[in-house]
Amino acid sequence: MILVIIYFSSLVVPIAGGSGGTHRNILLDGLVRWDGGIYLSIAAGGYPLASHGGVAPATAFFPAYPLLVRAVEFVVHNDHLAGVLVSNVAFLVALAYLYALARRESDRDTAARAVFYLAAAPAAVFFSAAYTESLFVACVAATFYHAGKGQWAPAALAAILASATRNTGFVLAAVIALEALHQAGVRFWPRSSRRGAASERPIGPRGP
Fold first, then answer.
1. Is 109 a domain residue?
2. CA torsion sign, 106 to 89 to 80 to 137?
3. pLDDT digits (tens, 9 = 90+) for 34-91
4. Domain that residue 119 falls in
């Protein structure tokens, strides 16, 4: 469905100049726009030393996704196809981890609905495009899943990959630390909650 929408929208709506498209393949080209073009240029030639005003704007884009695209491009020999493949495979991984997380907390129907709602969301088209969204979500979900099972090495590896994908990935270090403390029996309860719990205790002698 996404490919059909992209195909007809690319036919009807003119492709804006400078958006990263190359017109080589109307389907793949529709999934490589704006930031996607910058990621592919990094995958092809690395980070430029300087740009307008002596500042390289490409340095705002983290290296994990371009490195994966470069590795896949070595096999498929097409940078657009490599970018789309990395994004879609990462999205499938993200959905699998999301299902596992939801299944841990609820039943199968609820877990399946969680996956459906994410995949069917209007903005889910960006998970199939040459952007970092799908890879980042996969890393975040993997971090939560493995940390919840006490598998610290895979959780740390997923968090590192998330940090190499987007700058907000460093927050996952706090997620792992808090989960480790929780599994060790450490609890952080606000004082108001403690007072409320104390006030709810029954007054008077207990029954036999």
1. yes
2. positive
3. 777 788 888 888 877 765 555 456 777 888 999 999 999 889 888 888 888 999 999 9
4. 2-183
